[in-house]
Amino acid sequence: MPAKINLALKVGPPRDDGYHPLATVFQAVSLFDEIEAEWAEPGEFAVTVTGEGADLVPVDDSNLAIRAAQLLASTYGRPNSVGVSLSIKKSIPVAGGLAGGSSNGAAALVACAALWDLDVGTDELQALAAELGSDVPFAMLGGTALGSGRGDVLVPALARGTYSWVLAFGHRGLSTPAVYRRFDQLNSPGGGPPEVPAALMNALRSGEPAQVGPELVNDLQPAALDLQPKLRQVIEAGLEYGALGAIVSGSGPTCAFLAANETAAVDLSVALSADGICRAVRRVTGPVTGARIVG
Ligand code: ATP
Question: Which of 37, 96, 164, 272 is close enough to 259 for a disulfide, judged by CB 3.0 to 4.6 Å?
Fold first, then answer.
């Protein structure tokens, strides 16, 4: 199941229920967590987590993959006749702004529906995904898509081409609620509903990375940079080393750099690694498909 980056993240003022209306363009990229689902005793829902940042991931009922399995079982009336033991192998950094947890939730829905042989369609799984969290429906869909509402109302975007990205991982995670709190402090309330810039959508239709790069936008970026000022240096370094565009992904701290092609991405990742300002650097491509069964 893939990680996501936001090519645009426009954030409106908080509604009465505290949620911020979003207008976003998601792209699923080739950085994958793996999840295995095996039968367990009826009523038993368990998870083990290994890999990147595993010690930061809860293994109780707050784990999004467990919540997904339990929601699926209770919705389809079989909470006491099915059980599952999930193993997650993480490559997506935890609290990295790449929606790793949401991706695990989407994958658990797909994997458990197959394991328990449930008669449940994609639309029904998408509805459960939206109940689990605002990034979960996109993790299921994949590709490039426009998200509105809380990011859970999706329309596939007209996007051509494959994009070469370099991801720079931070030393510490950033809490999404903390970034939104800082956003609220930095921005005065009011303003109209958020909209994805037309220039980005036109650039995506062209399939030209050189057109897409300058149009990347993230309203949460000033808040993320304020909470982790070192990210400013990371963004500047990537641009200096030839990135066509640079952006903090979602609520950060992962920074995403768009390269002209694979060769440019290799050069950029080597230069950023040598610089030593980020914890790790990974090359990925997008778009890729959403959560799916591989065997
Ligand atoms: P987003 O961009 O969707 O806000 P993120 O990428 O910044 O999220 P995640 O890696 O999804 O952050 O994790 C956010 C928090 O969710 C973690 O700090 C962790 O406590 C919790 N969590 C619950 N289940 C999982 C999971 N399966 N994998 C990772 N984190 C999980």
Answer: 164
CATH code given to domain 163-286 = 3.30.70.890
**Residue-wise burial string across 16-41, b where 16 or more C-beta atoms lie within 10 A, e elsewhere:** eeeebbbbbbbbbbebbbebebeebe
**Nearest CA-CA partner of 247 in 12, 16, 2, 26:** 26
The secondary structure of residue 56, as a DSSP letter, is G
Residues in the chain: 295
What is the distance between the alpha carbons of residues 2 and 122, in angstroms, rounded to a whole number?
Answer: 18
Which runs of consecutive H residues, i.e. helices, occur in 92-187? 100-115, 122-132, 136-141, 176-186
The answer to pTM > 0.85 is yes
Q: Among 231, 269, 273, 258, which Cα is nearest to 29's?
A: 258
176 pocket-lining for ligand 1 (C-beta < 6 Å): yes
Q: What confidence tens digit (pLDDT) does each residue in 7-57 have? A: 999 999 888 888 899 999 999 999 999 999 999 999 999 999 999 999 999
CA distance 272 to 111: 37
| In this structure, CATH architecture of domain 2-154 | 2-Layer Sandwich (3.30)
Residue 94 Cα to ligand 1 middle (Å): 6
Shortest-distance atom of ligand 1 to CA 3: 6
Catalytic annotation, residues: 4, 135
Query: Which atom of ligand 1 has the smallest separation from the CA of 49?
Result: 27
**Nearest Cα to 29, choosing from 95, 130, 99, 88?**
99
